[in-house]
Amino acid sequence: MTYLVIGLCLFLLAIVVYISAKPISMGIEARRNVKDTDENINEKNQEISEYSDNKNNSEKSISDEIIKLNNLKKKGLLSDEEYQKAKDKILN
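Structure (tokenized):
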């Protein structure tokens, strides 16, 4: 009888571990995604601030600024609309 109770307890423990593994792994993945998102936001802010700093430098040519804008667009940090607005601002 004791072996039956111990076996039942081990079986229930295995079920609990199996059921809880999926939510735990989902939580870990969500935490990684939040961290990646924060890093992407920081990178975007840094790229934009570098672009703004370079924009104020009068030695930079228009073509250099457009190339930098294009690089930001290729990295996915600027949308097509943002790219076009910034490019129009530079050209005007």
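The chain has a mean pLDDT of 80. The CA atoms of residues 36 and 51 lie 22 Å apart.
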